[in-house]
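ingest -> fold -> write
write: protein_1
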Amino acid sequence: QVQLVESGGGLVQAGGSLRLSCAASGRTFRITATGWFRQAPGKERELVATITWSDGSTTYSDSVKDRFTSSRDNAKNTVYLQMNSLKPEDTAVYFCAARHFGLAGFQSWGQGTQVTVSS
């Protein structure tokens, strides 16, 4: 199995920055990509970024493009989400999830970390 643990959430003022981490353990060789999701109260879960472990290629939703950057450190089995120019509407619980080799979607999930952006 793959275990994921997020960290780095917190309270920040609008315009500030946070960096989330997603540390993977277990059968990490199965992971081909990591996705960052967020869910705000009363809203559907939103995929905001993905990163491929093999080459570091990334995708971003329009809502975070040019503000968020995902990176990875394969040696540490850790993926990061650098969040800049944060807005109150970025407030949500952020989850990382892992895609396993040969499968679509995301099969392993972290517990989530709260990000709150004050105006």
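write: protein_2
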Amino acid sequence: QVQLVESGGGSVQAGGSLRLSCVVSGRTSSINSMAWFRQAPGKEREFVARIPWSGGVVYHADSVKGRFTISRDNAKNTVYLQMSSLKPEDTAIYYCAAQYGTVAGYNYWGQGTQVTVSS
């Protein structure tokens, strides 16, 4: 199994930038994919971006495409979400998730980090 710890959240004005980090520990060899999700108050959890753990095509949700970039540094066992041109509607708790083993979907989650964008 694996453990995920996010950091990097905070408060920023619209148009600003933040970089979220997700440090992964444990049996990383069994990870297939990593992703970022977010959940705003009163809303359902929303997919943001995903990246294969061993390399390959990344995917970003339309709502963040061109503004957010997911990346990884396997040497540091860390996945990043670079967020630019932030909007108030990006305000949410951001979660890192791992697709581990043969289970379909993301089965390991971090505790989340709050991102607040003010207008």
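write: annotation protein_2
The longest strand covers residues 18-26.
The mean pLDDT is 96.
pipeline exit 0
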